[in-house]
Structures are given as structure tokens and as C-alpha cells.
Amino acid sequence: MFSNISREKLVEMGSRFRGSYLLEQAGYTLGIAARDGKAIEDLLPENFLKEVQDLVEKVRCAMQDKEVMNAEAREATQKQNCALEKAKVWRRKVVRRALRASRLGEEIPEELLSIGRTNRIPEIQGQIEVMMRLLEENISKMHGKGIDVLLKEGKDILNDFRSADVEQEVKRLRSLPDSVQDFYEKKGLLYLGIKVINDTGHEFFADNSEMASRYNLSILHRLSGQRRKDEENKSEDTSK
Predict the structure, then answer these.
(1) What pLDDT does residue 70 have?
(2) DSSP 3-state assignment of 163?
(3) Sign of the alpha-carbon torsion through 197, 201, 206, 211
(4) Would you say the C-alpha torsion 10, 189, 218, 76 has a positive or negative sign?
(5) Residue 72: which residues within 8 A CB-CB, separation 6 or more?
(6) CA–CA distance, 190 with 144 (Å, rounded to integer)
(7) How many CB atoms lie within 10 A of CB 12?
């Protein structure tokens, strides 16, 4: 193992990403590092690239276990529902309230008139903070009753985001079967390995932003973002 980070932290880190997405990202990142050759390898710990490649095989092998893959699917769904559902519903209600006011001739900030493509939790939290501020500033323009309830719901959602119970999350991950925790630990290490290779690429090409930019997580973020978008669209369809 090339990291001194605790197993607990690695399990938490690995729980954030689907194994298949990490494998695709790792394939790209290792390929870029291989093309740049010894210049990159010399900046890394000895045998680092080989260890990351070995992790790729271990993650791929673990994904043959049905128990592991079923648990991963359940985790992804649970996180999506628990962390985002209230926020998504609240955004829809605020936008509809603001659109009504706009149609009736009120000047309403653009940030209250559309949801946009924001799907990641930190971005959604930031969006809700902006929407809350603007809603309070434009409260006199909002027609109809219940605006106070809407404001309270928004504040409660922000409190939920801000007071996430890390200890409870650790306990939940600890309660998973050993095989699933082992899988998450491997995914955490693989993610960490990819990040370290990217850091190395940016160091070596510090004077060449175009070359450095190849060392990125665009595949992982694109795939994760697409899954979240697909799940949100599915949720929207079923709620109609």
C-alpha cells in the first residue's frame, strides 16, 4: 500500500465513486503517464505506477462479486435520495413561485427563474444559499401565501447540509460487509493514486498548461455527473 491514510478514510473516499468510472479514469490517466514516460515516473515513489495498475486489476476483480456490486448500487441510490431529494424539490417550488411573479410583471433575478444543470452536492448547497438570499431580498414580490414556509424549508435544508454527521457516516460504512469495505478501500486507493499522478503531471508541465491539462479527472466527473443527471431526470419523469 502506497498511502499512510487510514483504512476508514480510504473506505469513505472510495464510497463516493462507482468502480467502473474509476477504472475508465485510471485507464486514461495511466495511459497519459505511460506516454510521458520516465519523466513522470521519476517524480513518483518507486514502482508507483505499477502499484496503481495492480489496484486497477484488484478493483476489476472485486467487481465480479455480486454482493459487492449490489451494495455499491444501493449506496449510490441511498446517497442520492438522502442528500439531494429535499433540495431538488425545494428548488422546483422556488422556481415556480418566482416564475409566477415574473409572469405578473415583477423584476425577478435570473437565479430564481431556473434550476440549471447543477447536480453535485457542494454546488447545490451553494445554489440554495444564493436562492435563499435572493428569495429573502425579493419576498415582497412573491404573490400568495406560504412564502414563510418556503423560507423555513430552505433554511432547514441548508442546516442539513452544514451539519452532516460525519460520525454517523463512518458508523454506516463500518456496518457494511467486510468484502464491501475492502472494495471501497481499494477504490479509495485507486482514486488517490490517480490524483497523485495528476499532481505529478501538473508539476512536470508547470510551464506548459496545455500538456498539464491532460492530467485531469474529466472522465470521472463526466460519468459521475451523467449518472446523477440520469437519476434526476428519472426522478422528474416519475413525479409528473
Answers:
(1) 81
(2) coil
(3) negative
(4) negative
(5) 18, 19, 180, 183
(6) 52
(7) 18
